């Protein structure tokens, strides 16, 4: 599994989500690709009011902010 982290610059909520992602103990490392939505109008349209958003590349499932540690761990379960 890999994650895409939809984010943008100067986003306080994105910083909170990133800190939660970094500080949540995981059983195995999970690669995360950060994508700045400002680089694409299509991404701004899709995620502009939802960021930060985590997306699993294996299932396509998305987790919108706000989420807590338990919701994050549930999201990451196989």
Give an account of the 3D structure.
By secondary structure, the protein is of the alpha+beta class. The chain is 35% helix and 22% strand. The chain has a four-stranded mixed beta sheet, covered by helices on one side. A hairpin with a 5-residue loop joins strand 3 and strand 4. The longest helix is centred in the first third of the chain and has 12 residues, at 12-23. It is globular, with a radius of gyration of 12 Å.
Q: Summarize model confidence as the mean pLDDT.
A: 96
What percentage of residues falls in helices of 4 or more residues? 25-40%
Q: Element order, helices and strands?
A: EHEHEEH
**What spatial form do the alpha-carbon principal axes imply?**
globular
Number of strands: 4
The value of Rg in angstroms is: 12 Å
* Individual helix count: 3
- Biggest sheet: strands side by side, in what order? 2-1-3-4
Low-confidence stretches: none
Strand content: 15-25%
């Amino acid at each position: 599994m890999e994650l895409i982290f939809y984010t943008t610059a100067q986003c306080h909520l994105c910083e909170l989500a990133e800190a939660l992602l970094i500080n949540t103990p995981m059983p195995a490392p999970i690669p995360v690709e950060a994508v700045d939505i400002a680089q694409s109008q299509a991404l701004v349209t899709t995620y502009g009011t939802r960021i930060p958003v985590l997306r699993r590349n294996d299932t396509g499932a998305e987790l919108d902010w706000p989420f807590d540690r338990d919701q994050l761990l549930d999201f990451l379960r196989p």
